[in-house]
TrEMBL record:
InterPro entries: Flavin_trans-like (IPR036551), Flavoprotein (IPR003382). Residues 8-164 form the Flavoprotein domain. Pfam families: Flavoprotein (PF02441). One of its GO terms (molecular function) is catalytic activity. This is Flavoprotein. It comes from Rhizobium mongolense. Gene3D superfamilies: Flavin prenyltransferase-like (3.40.50.1950).
Length: 183
């Protein structure tokens, strides 16, 4: 096994299929990443028939504890950046409300408490969207509250909310450049 390097990326997968497969490819492009998998993301993995097959420099951490024990590593400098992608409307709403009762929302809360930058790829960003479901493309009509929560999250300190996969790629590349410039 490859020696793990610190600090690392913290990438959270939530229970949305919105660009789920594409997010895997982006994760694979990162060295030294920990993937936090929510219980809902585990369900999406099964629906899409996907496996968490990443490089040796990537650890996978599942949401199996009530207090999300793995997030304690934030206080020991293990992470430099957080990416929540894709982020469900449920995750966005909880982040906005300050609720941290899943591994996703707990990671976001700890990142804030440790003053780490977060990139959030919110799924519900427009009144009408097309997204991939297990059996093909579907139209989605986010509720006004979902759009309001996405807008509110954009105002949070050290949080960049992106609205498209292309914007996610750019945000990750920009952050990667900042990290590589420090090395």
């Amino acid at each position: 096994m490859t020696r793990l390097r610190t600090p690392r990326w913290a990438w959270v997968l939530t229970g949305s299929g919105h660009f789920f497969v594409e997010c895997f490819e982006l994760i694979r492009s990162l060295d030294h990443c920990d993937v936090f998998v929510t219980k809902a993301a585990d369900e999406v993995l099964r629906m899409y028939g996907l496996k968490l097959d990443f490089s040796d420099t990537t650890r996978v951490l599942h949401d199996k504890t009530a207090s999300a024990v793995p997030v304690g590593e934030f206080y020991h400098g293990v992470y430099h950046s957080v990416v929540i992608a894709p982020a469900t409307s449920n995750t966005v709403a909880k982040c906005v409300a300050g609720i941290s009762d899943t591994i996703a929302t707990n990671v976001y809360a700890q990142a804030g408490k440790c003053r780490l930058p977060s990139i959030v790829f919110a799924c519900d960003t427009a009144p009408e969207l097309e997204t991939m479901a297990p059996h093909g493309m579907v139209k989605v009509y986010p509720r006004p509250i979902d759009l309001e929560n996405t807008a509110r999250l954009k105002t949070f300190e050290r949080t960049q909310v992106v609205e498209s996969f292309a914007d996610l790629e750019l945000a990750v590349a920009r952050r990667k450049g900042e990290i590589d410039g420090r090395d």
